[in-house]
Design goal:
The complex is a heterodimer of chains A (116) and B (111). Chain A has 116 residues and is mainly beta. Chain A has no helices and 11 strands. Chain A starts with a strand and ends with a strand. The chains are: A mainly beta (116), B mainly beta (111).
Chain lengths: 116, 111
């Protein structure tokens, strides 16, 4: 299957700082990438959909100014958690799809964010 | 609203003890039902996609089936390395590429 790489896998930061997480599709071009958040023993919650070259579409209840998403190229999307607080601590997972509206999503390895 | 319900929440099996996981869905215009495996601290790993009722797919000890209301993931003679959380997701015809996930079934296979 297609490979999606996510970095960093773990990050610890102080409250009030910003953290950037990168998601790269390594062997295909991804016009669409998705960002999910997962709480312990819970399923994946879609945060936003990012399309290359355009603004991200956020799910209801997700703060656009808190979670900045940039999809500047067909192989890279970034999620920046701005002014992080302890309640932002979570497991963030990106996914990408090789083609439009069809086929399976391929997921990155996830990034564990801990805000102290 | 699309709904995906997985059962049971958790399942413990002995090695070699076959069983099935269930995924019930309520979707208007299903455009794919997906099964993923997720290990602790990792991203989901794609297993199968099913598109129409009656379709079946197999991979090693796993077999996925689909009806108009539910999907089953059958595990035949499981091994401890099959222990993981299994996630079911659906894509609806007007949702673009988005997937709606169920809560998952946490499978533990004891040696």
């Amino acid at each position: 299957g297609a490979v999606v790489s996510q970095h960093p896998s773990r990050v610890i930061c102080k409250s009030g700082t910003s953290v950037k997480i990168e998601c790269r599709s390594l062997d295909f071009q991804a016009t669409t990438m998705f960002w999910y958040r997962q709480f312990p023993k819970k399923s994946l919650m879609l945060m936003a959909t990012s399309n290359e070259g355009s603004k991200a579409t956020y799910e209801q209840g997700v703060e656009k100014d808190k979670f900045l998403i940039n999809h500047a190229s067909l192989t890279l999307s970034t999620l920046t958690v701005t002014s992080a607080h302890p309640e932002d601590s979570s497991f963030y997972i990106c996914s990408a799809i090789p083609g439009p509206n069809t086929g399976e999503l391929f997921f990155g390895e996830g990034s564990r964010l801990t805000v102290l | 609203e699309d709904q995906v319900t997985q059962s049971p929440e958790a399942l413990r099996l002995q090695e070699g003890e076959s069983s099935s996981l269930n995924c019930s869905y309520t979707v208007s215009g299903l455009r794919g039902l997906f099964w993923y495996r997720q290990d602790p601290g990792k991203g989901p790993e794609f297993l199968f996609t099913l598109y129409s009722a009656g379709e079946e797919k197999e991979k090693e000890r796993l077999k996925a089936t689909l009806t108009k209301k539910e999907s089953f993931l059958h595990i035949t003679a499981p091994k401890p390395e099959d222990s993981a959380t299994y996630l079911c997701a659906v894509r609806q015809e007007t949702s673009g590429s988005r997937l709606t996930f169920g809560e998952g079934t946490q499978l533990t296979v004891n040696p």
